[in-house]
């Protein structure tokens, strides 16, 4: 065990200084040759050509060995603690693209601050302004509704992305769902850390600080990683947004759970000709999971309604692509409608 610890120290030498820096909050390695360092709440890229694939894979295997965890192609996920006190989330191929390794180091606080230091450690200017938060939400909603009513699709969809609203694209295969999703992904600020959960590499993510996570359909590939397992991993990888390729099977519960746990601004696709059908399909998929089956229909409908902000139907009519009637939650709310009404319309 001591031999493994010494080997791990040697392998981590290129980032040892950054990890030891007390200002470091997270250090993320998304692929060989570089790392992203988060200090003061901001990520910055650092080139590190010595971090090749073999070295990174070795770090993952050694870190797992310290806690008697097998790490490799058959067990590509590992969450562990290092002797330095850092927490490490490992993702290896086939749960990430070939030739890449995802390592996320997080530094837990090793001291207990006095309560009297609260104002010095936190921005406390808004802690008792819940009413202001509501006012800001209403102002954001008013701006989006104005664009919605004006029919300014470009500004409206861009505004949804910047406001971190959850968007569901629906339509038949070949209708343009993934294409529009890719377009709007490019509208996400480049400063954000993006994680994707996919079963095939279809999304295009232009952000430098991003990780593509891959799950296997029906456990047919080596590793047998599920979308739900990847979600649990993302919670330890410091994402700003988590994007799902398509809602189906266990990914439906992942989507609902993910957007309800602090990562708004998701873009994903689902089959369904229009908004009511898409909502019904999402409801049925979630209800069909072991987790979703434990909820009553009304409760589940309310959960889905609070998670989905917009449903965008797309069609391909003989080569002509079109965006059909968009369901926008804020528009529905001002008309006194809820998600359950959309389910009944399916």
TrEMBL record:
This is Type IV secretion system protein. The keyword Magnesium does not apply. Part of the Type IV secretion system. One of its GO terms (cellular component) is type IV secretion system complex. GO terms for biological process: secretion by the type IV secretion system. Keywords: ATP-binding, Cytoplasm, Nucleotide-binding. One of its GO terms (molecular function) is ATP binding. InterPro entries: P-loop_NTPase, T2SS/T4SS_dom, T4SS_GSP_E_ATPase, VirB11. Residues 158-312 form the Bacterial type II secretion system protein E domain. It comes from the Bacteria. It is found in: Cytoplasm.
């Amino acid at each position: 065990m001591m031999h493994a610890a010494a080997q791990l120290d040697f392998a981590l030498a290129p980032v040892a200084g950054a990890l030891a820096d007390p200002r470091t909050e997270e250090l993320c390695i998304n692929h060989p040759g570089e790392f992203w360092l988060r200090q003061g709440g901001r990520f910055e890229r650092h080139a590190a050509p010595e971090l090749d694939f073999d070295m990174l894979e070795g770090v993952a295997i050694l870190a797992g060995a310290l806690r008697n965890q097998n790490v490799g192609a058959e067990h590509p996920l590992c969450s562990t603690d290092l002797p330095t006190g850092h927490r490490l989330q490992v993702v290896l191929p086939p749960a990430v693209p070939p030739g890449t390794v995802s390592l996320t180091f997080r530094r837990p606080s090793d001291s207990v601050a006095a309560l009297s230091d609260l104002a010095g450690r936190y921005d406390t200017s808004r802690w008792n302004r819940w009413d202001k938060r509501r006012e800001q939400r209403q102002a954001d909603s008013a701006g989006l509704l104005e664009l919605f009513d004006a029919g300014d699709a470009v500004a409206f969809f861009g505004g949804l992305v910047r406001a971190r609203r959850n968007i569901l694209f629906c339509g038949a295969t070949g209708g343009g769902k993934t294409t529009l999703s890719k377009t709007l992904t490019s509208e996400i600020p480049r400063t954000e850390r993006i994680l994707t959960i996919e079963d095939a590499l279809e999304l295009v993510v232009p952000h430098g600080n991003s990780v593509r996570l891959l799950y296997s359909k029906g456990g047919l590939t080596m590793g047998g990683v599920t979308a739900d397992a990847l979600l649990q991993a993302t919670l330890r990888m410091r994402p700003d947004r988590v994007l799902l390729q398509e809602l189906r099977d266990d990914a439906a519960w992942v989507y609902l759970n993910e957007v309800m746990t602090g990562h708004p601004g998701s873009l994903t696709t689902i089959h369904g000709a229009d908004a009511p059908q898409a909502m019904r399909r999402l409801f049925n998929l979630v209800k069909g999971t072991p987790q979703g089956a434990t909820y009553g229909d009304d409760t589940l409908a309310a959960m889905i309604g609070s998670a989905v902000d917009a449903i965008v139907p797309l069609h391909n009519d003989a080569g002509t692509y079109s965006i059909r009637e968009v369901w926008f939650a804020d528009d529905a709310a001002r008309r006194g409608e809820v998600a359950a009404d959309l389910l009944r319309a399916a």
